[in-house]
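ok here's Diguanylate cyclase:
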Amino acid sequence: MRRDQSSLLSDGAYLLLFIFSFVAIVYMAGDPDRYMYNIIFLNAAFLIAIITYFTNVTAGLILNILFIFGYGTFTLYRTVVEGATVSAQNYVWLLLTPMLTLITWMVTMANRRLQEDNARLQKLNQSLATMDEHTDLKNSLSFQKDATVFMALSQRYKMPLTLLVVSVKYWDEIKRMISRDQMTQTIYNVSQLSQTSIRTNDSLYMLNADNPTWGMLLFTDREGANVVIDRLRQRARELNETAAGTRLKVELILKIGAVEFSPEETSTPLEFIAQARRQLEYDV
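and the structure:
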């Protein structure tokens, strides 16, 4: 509802701006004798509008009061000293200038509301998103939800559950040597080889996209996880041999840490990850 109101306010403000521009053009074209006079006041009106856009409506109102006071003084001077008559034309800019300020304030408010709505929706999307946008893998939020269920199943049915954490060795140095597109492709390649190294009932996650870290929940014990680890290292060597003839001249070395779930030692998914990361540090 609020978003509809913001869009309506924005559309109305821009429509009024077009109408104002049309009225100002018609008015100035209909009185060529006062062309320079109207140009000066039009510039003053737009100057006040620009200041209002970049500050706030209070500053615009103050400037409009000063404009009206200065315009009134100028009109009084012409009437008393030069003997000019006061006509309807003397009131036009007293109406157009505050009107342009009001339209500008409406545009500013509409843009601000739309920006707030956009920021709110982006934040909501980040908090609810369960997929990594680059690899289409489940992210850390999805991992925490799934791990809670898998840990409960493991404890209830006495099924072994092992978490593998995989990262790329020397990643900080590698990303300085390759372009952003190559870096994205590298992450995707590692994700693919990880996906093909596990069974269909196991789950693969992108735990950290900035410093690529993958997590694998495997329904197997620690010895069974070693089979997956050996398979990952073999696939990595094959990937390096395949990439040797391409523009990607870096060698990918995987760091892998594994820990088997123990109800006595692990109570939350975050502790599960922390334990696997500690094992990751020993893989040098």
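+1. The chain has a mean pLDDT of 80.
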